[in-house]
Amino acid sequence: xxxxxxxxxxxxxxxxxxxxxxxxxxxxxxxxxxxxxxxxxxxxxxxxxxxxxxxxxxxxxxxxxxxxxxxxxxxxxxxxxxxxxxxxxxxxxxxxxxxxxxxxxxxxxxxxxxxxxxxxxxxxxxxxxxxxxxxxxxxxxxxxxxxxxxxxxxxxxxxxxxxxxxxxxxxxxxxxxxxxxxxxxxxxxxxxxxxxxxxxxxxxxxxxxxxxxxxxxxxxxxxxxxxxxxxxxxxxxxxxxxxxxxxxxxxxxxxxxxxxxxxxxxxxxxxxxxxxxxxxxxxxxxxxxxxxxxxxxxxxxxxxxxxxxxxxxxxxxxxxxxxxxxxx
Length: 328
What we know:
Number of strands: 9
Structural class: alpha/beta
Strand content: 5-15%
Distance between the termini: 63 Å
Low-confidence stretches: none
CATH superfamily of the largest domain: Spore Coat Polysaccharide Biosynthesis Protein SpsA, Chain A
Mean pLDDT: 91
Largest sheet: 7 strands, mixed
Radius of gyration: 20 Å
Number of helices: 9
Helix content: 25-40%
Strand order of the largest sheet: 3-4-5-2-1-6-8
Shape: globular
Number of domains: 2
């Protein structure tokens, strides 16, 4: 009798500095929504706080790799990185390296930014990735076929040996991607696009998210690569022959609708935001802010319960202020 063909999903994220707090809450939310398995966490710097209990694991075949067993059915693997890339530009490289090493048995690999919280059942994600490369629309979407960015992408990459073919108006967010093993080649395309882009932006150590920003003429809303990895991801969709399965802005709570993973864009992040000050400035707590604090109670505890209660008092008061006063 033949055994059933079991599919294995693995998750990864990248962080440095205080984004470790976001990693903890992302993990809590994933477990709450039914994910069980391995989560691979690439990082720069030193492990501290709740992650300091991880133990070196030679079985990962990754120099300095450590594992923290949160539950018997949830393992966190911390993988130090020696790249000079800005981490936002390292996503396809990291996912490919995982598939070639620690996660070689994975049927699917999902990447989440550490400022995302998962609110949909994990069964939704495991089904979704079977429909094509799973992606979510960005707040700055749409980008029509002859938008200056898209036209410039086609011209630039054609000069660099990569042909792009327009598919649709949706411009996706770079904070999430789900890829099945059969669509693994998409990551190779994304990586190749980023490497071609590097010549234009001065190297993949540069990013609009970094303290040392891109050169002035290479950044901003009208620059073809102002969002580096995210622009490269959207160009890769046009350079790949396979299918992408897209959900709308509501997926990341940018628009009303069926939210699956609220994404905290911009600064400050939910773990460092003063909600009352923000509300007085006309910016009430967002869906992502609230879901972050909902998921601070879970497998990984990084806050004192009293501190969480005080935060919720400020969130509720800030939300009340937001009913009468907010920016538009």
